[in-house]
Amino acid sequence: MAPALNTVPFVSVEHMMRLVLAIGVERFLTELADFIAADFRRWESFDKTPRLAAHSVDGVIELMPTSDGTTYGFKYVNGHPKNIRSGRQTVAAFGVLADVGHGYPVLLTEMTILTALRTAATSALAAQYLAPPRARTMALIGNGAQAEFQALAFKALLGIDRLRLYDIDPAATAKCLRNLAGLGFTLQPCASIAAAVEGAEIVTTVTADKQNATILTDNLVGAGIHINGVGGDCPGKTELHPDVLRRCEIVVEYAPQTRIEGEIQQLPFDHPVTELWQVIAGRAPGRRDARQVTLFDSVGFAVEDFSALRYLRERLGTYPFFTELDLLADPDEPRDLFGMLLRAQARAAA
Amino acid sequence: MAPALNTVPFVSVEHMMRLVLAIGVERFLTELADFIAADFRRWESFDKTPRLAAHSVDGVIELMPTSDGTTYGFKYVNGHPKNIRSGRQTVAAFGVLADVGHGYPVLLTEMTILTALRTAATSALAAQYLAPPRARTMALIGNGAQAEFQALAFKALLGIDRLRLYDIDPAATAKCLRNLAGLGFTLQPCASIAAAVEGAEIVTTVTADKQNATILTDNLVGAGIHINGVGGDCPGKTELHPDVLRRCEIVVEYAPQTRIEGEIQQLPFDHPVTELWQVIAGRAPGRRDARQVTLFDSVGFAVEDFSALRYLRERLGTYPFFTELDLLADPDEPRDLFGMLLRAQARAAA
User: Fold this and answer.
1) Nearest one of A229, A225, A185 to A202, comparing CA atoms
2) Which residues of A touch B179 (CB under 8 A)?
3) Closest CA to A79 of A153, A13, A145, A174
4) Is some CB atom of chain A closer than 8 A to the CB atom of B103?
5) Which of A67, A98, A272, A292 is most buried (CB neighbours < 10 A)?
6) What's the CA gap between A84 and A80, in Å, rounded?
7) Pairwise CB contact (< 8 Å): B103 & A78
8) For A347, nearest residue in chain B (alpha carbons)
9) d(CA B331, CA A209)
10) Residue A162 half-sphere exposure, CB side, CA atoms within 13 Å?
11) Which residue of B has its CA nearest to A326?
């Protein structure tokens, strides 16, 4: 029997959760980081376009496509800071992989959870090249939806086992402490940002407000630390004071996009930055000395989603957590689309 | 109970067929044309961008987004002429509507069938303004997947009841004759293009080869006819000889896109054309006299898909042919995405 041409494997939220739990969160993050690293090493083989964004008063809806010439992927993602008030996620997403040869989708999946995982995996991957060696302590500033994923990625990839947590809302910190209990961390809630960064070798900022905030001022940033800046990810939304940026070696995903969306939107357009793929591919140095302050200015790029979709598809071979979705019209004879309709009518009448 | 925030209504191919049959193909086409006309009348309220295309040797994958500031829509569509050989459609599509206010998708649907319907509805809508009054005879050149939809749209909107059919492949014509039998047409298969256009007041060209073909040469085009050119719809794919184009009053959907993709890719970039919305909104004349040769150079534009999605969503209120898809992560507390995973684990262990 010929394979069905009309259906597309679909991974629901429920199936994504079962898949992540079956693999284990830390193993999932580690394997996903390997896929991201492999794709970053062949960076030049990807079609790269800035995301296609539809901005409105309340937020943005974006399409993020990319292709390596064989496989095509895109993600639909929104960003609506006020969504919390209506019980919705600030960011929700779904994604598609397709075969470039025939153009049909080969995978449709939820990507809200998958995006949280790929963002964390990318952060930890970058930190492997940028953080001080043998770092064990991370400040986690912003204890919202992303926080636990960041913590576990840094544990899995770098061995971070001491967390210093701060959020403007103590309830967010309490949630984070509850969720991370028993997962192998020493957890320290802190009363201020200054207290949280004390003794931390890595500082992760992942706050959600859509505004030019100043989470880190210059006096808080000591020599030798690595800053993992995740929350400054769209125009008008930043977390670091420009003085901090000027002291950092700055690594970004894709400079044309980050100069618009990242922390470096606060700097002149020609401020020198390194792209992460260059570091991973050995074309640029990572951390050079113990006193250097490094910054990964993360905004999220389509290639990371592509890697995540590719990893997911590969793992579904072992863990079949998907259903087949009747998404594509498949007449017996390709030119007979209307005849398919007539036959459906005949079946209904029978 | 609060409405579920995690699910998105999904219209499968099976459900789309049942919906179309429940409404009736001709009524569906007529109502859909009304939605398209309404959106074309408010053309200036739409964000319009050329489609985002990923080209490859074998075809193209496109994302076609648009928004009216309240609702956002996009279509994923491929175009792969060689797909017929593997039993796949040349063109397959799916689409999404989303709420601009919170950014969540509100509808996911198959769009292979819906695209065939919206293309035909747009063609017939344009012909209402461009074809000779009281036309009854149409030549249908190219008898593939689109042909019957075009025929029925012209019957429903203009009263066309005599069809003269030609295809390079007699099997395609035979399929078309079979499918259209008993639907109220006088059907005349023809041995050549010249025979097909004889006596026709409207000539629809809807062939599929990806090449600069010459379906209509100058000597075949008599005074007063309307040409509905549907098959010239991507770079390097045209159906009409440039001499024909130079004799026509040309109407397009969105000039910046059509100059790249349509028949007019063969003309200088400043050749005068009228946009269909101008005609529908009364800002430009349609047909002016009995001898004029008119051409609707159709390539398909995102606003038509938006109208089709909007129409579909409206009709689902009466005909609930959809299921709810678990596409969006919906933790009890929006910031607690990781906790949702932990609770799924606890449920699985229980």
Assistant:
1) A225
2) 336, 338-339, 342
3) A145
4) yes
5) A98
6) 9
7) yes
8) B18
9) 20
10) 12
11) B12
pLDDT in tens, chain B (350 residues): 345 788 999 999 999 999 999 999 999 999 999 999 999 999 999 998 778 889 899 899 999 999 999 999 999 999 898 888 888 888 899 999 999 999 999 999 999 999 999 999 999 999 999 999 999 999 999 999 999 999 999 999 999 999 999 999 999 999 999 999 999 999 999 999 999 999 999 999 998 766 667 889 888 999 999 999 998 777 888 889 999 999 999 999 999 999 998 999 999 999 999 999 999 999 999 999 999 999 999 999 999 999 999 999 999 999 999 999 999 988 878 889 999 999 999 988 88
CB B107 within 8 A of CB B11: yes
Residue for token pair 């636990």: A148
Q: Choose, from B39, B167, B233, B297, the residue flagged as catalytic.
A: B233
CB pairs under 8 A between A and B: 253
| Chain A interface includes B49 (CB < 8 A) | yes
Q: What is the CATH number of domain A122-300?
A: 3.40.50.720
Q: Which of residues 273-332 of A touch B (CB under 8 A)?
A: 325-331
CB contact A46 to B (< 8 Å) = no
Tell me whether 0.90 is exceeded by the ipTM: yes
A81 touches chain B (CB under 8 A): no
What CA–CA distance (Å, rounded) separates A159 from A136? 6
Q: Are B310 and B3 within 8 A, CB to CB?
A: no
Question: For chain A, what are the domain ranges?
Answer: 7-113+303-349, 122-300
Question: Is position B233 annotated as part of the catalytic site?
Answer: yes
Catalytic residues of A: 233
Q: Rounded to a whole number, what is the distance in Å from the CA of B73 to chain A's nearest CA?
A: 10
> What backbone torsions phi and psi does residue A92 show, to the nearest 5 degrees?
-130, 150
CA-CA distance, A86 to A146, in Å (whole number)? 19
CB-CB contact of A276 with A244 (8 Å): no
Q: Which of B272, B271, B269, B215 is nearest to B244 (CA)?
A: B215
Secondary structure element (H or E) that encloses residue B23, with its range: helix B13-23
B283: CB partners within 8 A, 6+ apart: none
Chain A segment 159-218 residues within 8 A of B by beta carbon are 172, 175, 178-179
A7-113+303-349 belongs to CATH 3.30.1780.10:
yes
Residue of A21, A25, A102 for testing the chain B interface, max B β-carbons within 10 Å:
A102
User: Same topology for domains B7-113+303-349 and B122-300, yes or no?
Assistant: no
- SS3 label, residue A339: helix
